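Bench notes, afternoon.
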Amino acid sequence: MAPSLTTDILGEPWVARRIAVTPDEAAAPGADHAVLVHQREAVPPADGAPRHERAVLYLHGRNDFFFQTHLADALLTAGYEFYALDLRACGRAGVDHPSPHDVRDLRVHDEEITEALRIIRTEHAHSGDVVLNGHSTGGLLAAIWAADHPGSVSALVLNSPWLQLNSSGLARSYGSAYVDLISRRDPEKIIDDPAQARARKRARRAADAATAVPVDADPGPIGEDLYVRSLHRHWGGEWDWDLRLKPSPSFPVRAGFLAGIRRLQREVRHGLGLRIPVLVCCSTTTGGPGTDAREARRSDVVLSVEQIVERAGFLGSDVTIRQIPNGVHDLALSSSPAREEYLTTVTEWLTARLG
């Protein structure tokens, strides 16, 4: 029986495929599926070969989903079929979920990553190299998954991976030990930085005041969520993604999720020993306290690029670090020419390392 493919929210030729997963209430409460996204032409004809022998599987970050079709275009042009996985409880798979992105053990995603790779290799017959490409939380997950499954992928491409907890207001207010303690007692406890807390209260007041907030309503100060709001068109940015799937204010950070992240980051610090080539890309500039919207559009205001560079060395023995001037946290969403520099860096590195 052929799998059910539906036209994706991105429109043709993009299609979505639901992947059922085994429910795990301790690791990802209420989650029962993930969603694999690819172009319709990725499915090879019954009597023919796939469009490309090689493939890339993309893993999104927190409060995120795949919509960066220009990233896919660059990799398709470079000879890699592109697949993106919206993980359980996240993105497309988080619609109608009571607490999107509330995943307390990222290793629960092993099941859908493994199934996506089976589809790529077996059903779609990609016999060449398969690369994992992860952004932020997805970058941390990609590195851990590759370490847990040696020899399963040919290379890693990490876009601003979350390898260390940034020394933000969130970290200053709650130490890792305290978060671990809270997560055992109350894993659903929301742990926000002050700006996100203000933004969430504002959103609740707006929802209480009307059954539906008009699209042209006051969206609130950009400073309440500087990263998302500096990029989205609603606040004067360049991009126009679905704010139901990547909202501002973001889906709340909960204690169970953060404790799970810290456990994996400690594993990175102890060394993952990856034996495949790894490309780690990030901005050249960390946007610290007081960063304005203009600076936010040319720096990483989410993570510390210094920490990314420092922790990259613990991933394995073959790690290439490339920093992109004027890049933002998701380098694929940077303004030109930083965006093109990132895409060129990725495709040229893949050519150099995998041929």
